[in-house]
Amino acid sequence: MKRRFLPWRLLVVLGLIAVSLLVVFPVRDRIRLGLDLRGGSHILLECMDTPEAPVDEDAVRRVVEVIRNRIDQLGVAEPVIARQGERRVLVQLPGVTDPQRAVEIIGKTALLEFKDETGQTLLTGAHLKNAQVQFDRLGRPVVAISFDSEGAKLFAQATTANVGRPLGIYLDGKLISNPIVQEPILGGEAQITGRFTLEEAQNLAILLRAGALPVKVEVIENRSVEPTLGRDSVQAGLRAAIIGVILVLAFMVLYYGSFGLLADLALLCFILFFFALFIGLRATLTLPGIAGFVLTVGMAVDANVLIFERIKEEFRSGKTWRASIDAGFQKAFRTILDANLTTLIAAVLLFSLGSGPIKGFGVTLSLGILCSMFTGVWVSKVFVDLFADRLKMRA
Amino acid sequence: MEFIRGTHVNFMGIRKIAYVVSLVLVAVSLGSIALRGLNYGIDFAGGTLLQFRFPREVTTEELRKVLGSVNLEKSVIQRFSPTEVVIRAPKLSQEDQNRLVALLKDSFGSAELLRIEDVGPAVGADLRRMGITALLVAIGGILVYVAFRFEFRPAVTSVLALAHDGLIVVGLVSLLQKEFTIPILAAVLTILGYSINDSIVVMDRVRENLIGRRRGEDLEGVVNQSINEVLSRTINTALTTALPVLALYFFGGKMLQDFALAILVGLVVGTYSSIFVVSALWVDWEKRQPRRR
Fold first, then answer.
1. Which of A215, A235, A267, A332 could form a disulfide with A307, with the two C-beta atoms 3.0–4.6 Å apart?
2. Strand-pair partners of A168
């Protein structure tokens, strides 16, 4: 290529810088942070077979639906609820500050049953129309429920048949209240008084409104991070990245002089282009992702090291600086390609390394490698060509 | 500034020492992995990890005593700061977790739950399988690439050195009983992908110099000259990569420290092996069974 089309190439670089700046800023709004950095819960559930309720296709679909209802009631912004494989459901709740409560609400079967003294089930929560927290005369929280027309009929029958006797209210087989029926209740409304705390009553109301899960569900993975811890991680990662970049910038200038300065310019382009691509691809930044980025900063200048060392050698063999520069870029290219390809093989495999934040490491590493090949070779060459007549190194 | 210039180190002359060093390192690594084993983190082993922040300084003994009252005295306690602690226990049920949190709140006034990592045995098994697959495919992929890229013998010695690098990193993780987690596995994979590069640089130069070899010049001489010629780039590429990783180790927070350490060790070992081992093994192979050229 030599120095042909230099104005055009420069224009391309400047254009890319302009576009990237538009994409990247304001950084705070544009970068999507993973749950480990912004805080939140990543919960994987598995539907379990029980003798009463074996798992089938329909059951899993209803589980997803019920869980979505429950999360809507929790008021989480941008939740992810997705089926994974045959019987797993992934739930991601950004910004949740009380993951234990979230797990409790998501994972509970929440089967409500009314049973008479003989233990026979007269009515279940399937006939509920609504459930709300109210307070009794003593100011204690209770859950007020109302039945649909079918439920109201069943409840009228149940209370009529059991006047003067207890009617047990069970949640997932556990007795939560055992009131004595004073008189038949015909209006289809009732209260559950179970010596609840306010939060317990709220949770129960949410569960009853959203409906019971058709099968038993178990939490098989839960990764939750408190938002302040996430913020600490972002700060630590950012600090390490900035210090790392400064160290590399300094090293290149100290070691390669004016050539190093141009490599630094290319490195700054790399950082800019990297984040523009990252944001453009709507990728999510995780803590391991930051580690991957920091690593690629160091790898990005490897191309420049290989090129500059080659240029030195060419110059020592008696060529002019200009000729050495062209030969250096040309001859180092094969090595750079090799170096990046083998690392890329490993990086792409990290994509497949399962769920969770580590995927973010694979993403930033792969993206970084691809992006650095462009900035390390092509963009660097534009800068070097631009100043070729004034460049010198100790050789 | 320039550290390396016009060196004439006789690398081939000290290759027996390098072999001994490498064999010792590999033996120690294998021994540690066999005897001490790997301290699998909950990613692979399953279990529950809880990170707490307390309102005051809490000593490990205090904490262990409280954990003992719920039969969790065998949990691993890791301190992040005087008030921040990570507790790693076998898989706890939801009720047990709630009970533990309530207990710690009672014992220390308050206990802020900063992080939960709860991995069931099924997920742990999945991650183990995925990890092993990724490792094997990575090695396979690099092998295929090297086979296309190199002649047979340099390919074999490079991959041997690669196995040596990976093994020593894992060995160190075992020796220090650092947790073997997914990030550590990621570090090993990255090192495998990265450290083959230096071997490629060295062996490419050897091939280049063999073509222009003067009559009577011996193999060792050519290899020595080649390594010396590419020495500054072998060291500088490792150095520029190590600098930001060092920043990560010192400033990147507790959670990335072990990862950074694994990468750093991998970089050092990888650079060492591509300078001292890869071409040396190849020289010995060629001398024992010379091929017709």
1. A332
2. A115
Which chain A residue shows the shortest CA-CA distance from B53?
A229
pLDDT tens, position by position, A168-211: 988 888 888 888 888 888 888 888 887 888 888 888 888 888 88
> Burial letters for A135-150: b for 16+ Cβ neighbours within 10 Å, e otherwise?
eeeeeebbbbbbbeee
Q: Please, which contacts does A272-277 make with residues 24 or more away whose CB atoms are closer than 8 Å?
A: A272/A17, A272/A20, A272/A21, A272/A24, A273/A16, A273/A20, A273/A371, A273/A374, A273/A375, A274/A367, A274/A368, A274/A371, A275/A20, A275/A23, A275/A24, A275/A27, A275/A31, A276/A19, A276/A20, A276/A23, A276/A24, A277/A367, A277/A371
pTM exceeds cut of 0.95: no
Neighbour-count burial for B197-209, b at 16+ CB within 10 Å, e otherwise: bbbbbbbbbbeeb
Buried b (16+ CB within 10 A) or exposed e, A326-355: bbbbebbbebbebbbbbbbbbbbbbbebbb
- Per DSSP, A127 falls in state G
The per-residue pLDDT for B284 is 92
Q: What is the ipTM of this complex?
A: 0.90
pLDDT at A395: 62
Please give the Cα distance from A304 to A260 (Å, whole number): 8
For residue B94, the chain A residues in CB contact (below 8 A) are: 100, 103-104, 107, 219
Listed by start position, the domains of chain B span 12-41+123-288, 47-118
Q: What is the largest CA-CA distance in chain B?
A: 84
Across the interface, whether the CB atoms of A248 and B260 are under 8 A apart is answered no
Min CA distance, A288 vs chain B (Å)? 7
Q: What is the pLDDT of residue A112?
A: 87
> Does residue B24 sit in helix, strand or coil?
helix
Question: Cβ contact (<8 Å) for B197 and A338?
Answer: yes
Q: E strands along B73-133, which residues?
A: 76-81, 84-89, 112-119
What are residue A320's phi and psi, to 5 degrees?
Answer: -75, 165
Q: Which member of B197, B204, B244 has the closest CB to residue A295?
A: B244
Beta bridge mates, B53: B84, B112
Q: Between B98, B134, B237, which is nearest A100 by CB?
A: B98
CA distance A65 to chain B (A): 23
What does the alpha-carbon distance between residue A138 and residue A171 come to, in Å, rounded to a whole number? 24
What is the per-residue pLDDT for A1?
47
Cα–Cα distance, B197 to B75 (Å, whole number): 42
Banded model confidence at residue B5, pLDDT cuts 50, 70, 90:
low
Cβ within 8 Å, pair A338-B200: yes
Domains of chain A by start residue, with CATH: 6-36+226-390 (1.20.1640.10), 40-224 (3.30.1360.200)
Which of 3.30.70.3400, 3.40.50.10490, 3.90.960.10, 3.20.20.100 would CATH assign to domain B47-118?
3.30.70.3400
Q: Which long-range contacts (CB under 8 A, 24 or more apart) does A315-319 make?
A: A315/A393, A315/A395, A316/A395
Going by C-alpha positions, the residue among B109, B92, B102 that lies closest to residue B58 is B109
Nearest chain B residue to A349 by CA distance is B134
How close is the nearest chain A Cα to the Cα of B178, in Å? Answer: 17
User: Domain spanning B12-41+123-288: which superfamily?
Assistant: Multidrug efflux transporter AcrB transmembrane domain (1.20.1640.10)
Angstrom distance (rounded) from CA A254 to CA A244: 15
Identify the burial level of B270 via C-beta atoms within 10 angstroms of its C-beta, where 0-12 means exposed, 13-18 middle and 19 or more buried. buried
- Phi and psi at residue B135, in whole multiples of 5°? -65, -45
Cβ–Cβ below 8 Å for A223 and B113: no
Q: What span, in angstroms and rounded, lies between the C-alpha atoms of A27 and A33?
A: 11
